[in-house]
Amino acid sequence: MRVGFGYDVHRLIEGRRLVLGGVDVPHEVGVLGHSDGDVLAHAVADALLGAAALGDIGSHFPDTSDEWRDADSIKLLTRVGDLVAEAGYRTVNVDATVALERPRLRDFIDSMRANLASAMRIDVNAVSVKATTTERLGFEGREEGVSAYAVCLIEQQSEPESNG
Q1: Helix, strand and coil in the chain, % to nearest 5
Q2: For 124-128, which contacts have Cβ atoms below 8 Å and span 24 or more sequence positions?
Q3: What angle, 0 to 180 degrees and rounded to 10, lies between the N-to-C axes of helices 39-51 and 73-86?
Q4: pTM above 0.70, yes or no
Q5: Collapsing DSSP states into helix, strand and coil, what is residue 19?
Q6: Integer distance in angstroms from the first to the last C-alpha of the chain?
Q7: Do 133 and 100 meet the contact criterion of CB atoms below 8 Å apart?
Q8: What are the DSSP E strand ranges found in the chain?
Q9: How far is Cα 36 from Cα 94, in angstroms, rounded to an integer?
Q10: Residue 49 carries which DSSP code?
Q11: Per-residue pLDDT tens for 95-126?
Q12: DSSP label at 69?
């Protein structure tokens, strides 16, 4: 068994979509990012990559590459799930938190959980997504940005494929 932790943050600006867990959340500002800026999917991906000791999301999908410009982060998470499986691991569960002052996310949580679970090919009951404000403190509280934290548990299924 291995535990991984992921964190991501993006600035909020006008003229962009607010995408969280693969859900377009209606809001007057959206996420600035090279991809679609989905901090929730990015934090989960980093948690999985960290647990499997496979680097981080930036090493697999660099923001210097046009290939990943405006990329769907749920598709990136699907690829990360494939990499974790190829390394011989199975995702047991994921627990994630989004920190955002507005809008309230309660009505979108179930869809986020379903999107993340589908991307990782695990049961939705193995995915927890929570939302919190920061009580108007910090960049999230000033509505300048959004952050997400994720922890995951993976277990070894088989020996990783050898390259030699």
Answers
A1: 35, 30, 35
A2: 126/91, 126/92, 126/93, 126/94, 127/93, 127/94, 127/96, 128/93, 128/94, 128/95, 128/96
A3: 10
A4: yes
A5: strand
A6: 25
A7: yes
A8: 2-13, 19-20, 23-24, 30-31, 89-99, 127-132, 145-156
A9: 21
A10: H
A11: 999 999 999 999 999 999 999 999 999 999 99
A12: T
Do the Cβ atoms of 19 and 30 come closer than 8 Å? Answer: yes
The residues facing 5 across adjacent strands are 151
CA distances from 31 to 25, 35, 42, 63, 164 (A): 11, 10, 13, 15, 42
Going by C-alpha positions, the residue among 75, 68, 128 that lies closest to residue 98 is 128
Task: Identify the residue whose tokens are 């960049």.
Answer: 139
Q: What are 152's two structure tokens? A: 């995951």
Q: How confident is the model at residue 71 (pLDDT cuts 50, 70, 90)?
A: confident
Task: List, in sequence order, every residue forming a beta bridge with 152; answer none if it has no partner.
Answer: 4, 94
Tell me if 91 sits within 8 A of 84, measured CB to CB.
yes
By residue count, the chain amounts to 164
- What is the rounded CA–CA span in Å between residue 44 and residue 112? 12
Confidence of residue 75 (pLDDT cuts 50, 70, 90): very high
Query: Tokens 């974790």 label which residue?
Result: 84
